[in-house]
Amino acid sequence: MASKTEERREQLRQKLIAIAESRIANDGYAALTARDVAGEAGCALGAIYNIFKDMDALVTAVNARTLAGLEAAVARAFSDEGVRRDPKRGLVTLGLTYFHFVTAHPKLWSAIFELGFRAGKELPQWQIDEHVRLIGHIVKPLRVLLPGASEQRLDLLARSLFSAVHGIVSLGLARRFMAVPPAEIAAQITFIVEAFCDGVVARGARRP
Amino acid sequence: MASKTEERREQLRQKLIAIAESRIANDGYAALTARDVAGEAGCALGAIYNIFKDMDALVTAVNARTLAGLEAAVARAFSDEGVRRDPKRGLVTLGLTYFHFVTAHPKLWSAIFELGFRAGKELPQWQIDEHVRLIGHIVKPLRVLLPGASEQRLDLLARSLFSAVHGIVSLGLARRFMAVPPAEIAAQITFIVEAFCDGVVARGARRP
């Protein structure tokens, strides 16, 4: 059984994560300071560092919640039987789910990439596990489309498809460079992923 | 005829751009300072601001050179008759040309995006023109694949295809999130773009 002290510690931990999450969601990762978080939590600055090694560790905990949120959105999308059964529809749905998730949480989503760039260090194991789970969702419909493909090839294709959709979403929402206009992103994801699926099937038929 | 003063001014301008370019290429955009550039050019700090409104304007001039370099690489790739004639090969070649260009000049390439994010302002007209030219290179083979498509649709598809390849390249080279391993990027660009082309043709055949 957890002692009273451990319980309080866990409560403060959850409170600090919730505060950091709402601050990142509103003002972005770059604006987050330990002083502000401690002020809102009503605790001493040192109390944060008793629980988290550094601010990166606190942001990492927020990022874990964000990734879990994306996984929950994916699971909801796949609760539809029709989506689950049709690999093409499944892949398009995954792309659109990603797009809608990033649109709803743009600053929380950016924090995942910004922390990685700044920290420039190895990812924690839980995050690698989370990526493997997310890739698994893309691999499943790909395996139906490409029944003969090795697991390694399916993993690579899943990463490529994710990266392609991510490119359309991230350039589009940031309106950077040769971006797709925001109002067209969903239609373009649908077209690109559907054409890719048809192409994979056509290639399979041509070279059995 | 240009006066002696104008000539010297233009020489210093070119020298400052060359110094900034080599510094960004080596150390990245974030490390660039006016002090270092002036020191290397052997001029006063104020001389930079006589020529460029601010450091962003100097970086914009460097970015113009980088974009012109990409366009030259694309033109070289299309000097091959076989590439020019085969739309699928043309699109794959464009994707690989982009990948190789970014691989060869990663920090100069990042500067284009970083300046945009930091400045958060409207793009200058020459840069919009440059984007239109680059999109034109992607539209040409797409028009052969989709003869009935409107120019607006071809423009959107070109932006989507570029964004997709950019996503694979940028996540892959940065080794971020569910990235494609660097050694596999070229093969994955080839597969994704080819499957997309086959899909576009298959869709066209199915729905004439």
Quick structural overview:
Two copies of one chain form a homodimer. The first copy, chain A, is an all-alpha fold and 208 residues long. Chain A has two domains: 1-52, Arc Repressor Mutant, subunit A, CATH 1.10.10.60; 54-206, Tetracycline Repressor, domain 2, CATH 1.10.357.10.
Explain how this protein is built:
Two copies of one chain form a homodimer. Chain A has 208 residues and is an all-alpha fold. Chain A has two domains: 1-52, Homeodomain-like (Arc Repressor Mutant, subunit A), CATH 1.10.10.60; 54-206, Tetracycline Repressor, domain 2 (Orthogonal Bundle), CATH 1.10.357.10. Helix content of chain A is 80%, strand content 0%. Chain A has ten helices and no strands. In chain A, helix 6 (87-104) packs parallel to helix 9 (151-174). Chain A is elongated. Chain A starts with a helix and ends with a helix. The mean pLDDT of chain A is 90. At the A-B interface, helix 7, helix 8, helix 9 and helix 10 of A face helix 7, helix 8, helix 9 and helix 10 of B.
The N- and C-terminal alpha carbons of chain A lie at a distance of 60 Å
By CATH, the superfamily of the largest domain in chain A comes out as Tetracycline Repressor, domain 2
Oligomer classification: homodimer
Please trace the helix and strand order of chain A, writing H or E for each element.
HHHHHHHHHH
Unreliable stretches of chain A (pLDDT < 50, length at least 5) are: none
Q: Greatest chain-chain interface?
A: A-B, 45 and 45 residues
Largest sheet features of chain A: none
CATH fold topology of the largest domain in chain A: Tetracycline Repressor, domain 2
* Gross morphology of chain A: elongated
Radius of gyration of chain A: 20 Å
- Give the helix tally of chain A: 10
How much helicity do the residues of chain A have?
over 70%
Which second-level CATH architecture of the largest domain in chain A applies? Answer: Orthogonal Bundle
Number of strands of chain A: 0
State mean pLDDT of chain A (0 to 100 scale): 90
Number of domains of chain A: 2
Identify the CATH class of the largest domain in chain A: Mainly Alpha
Beta-strand content estimate of chain A:
under 5%
Given helix and strand content, the structural type of chain A is mainly alpha
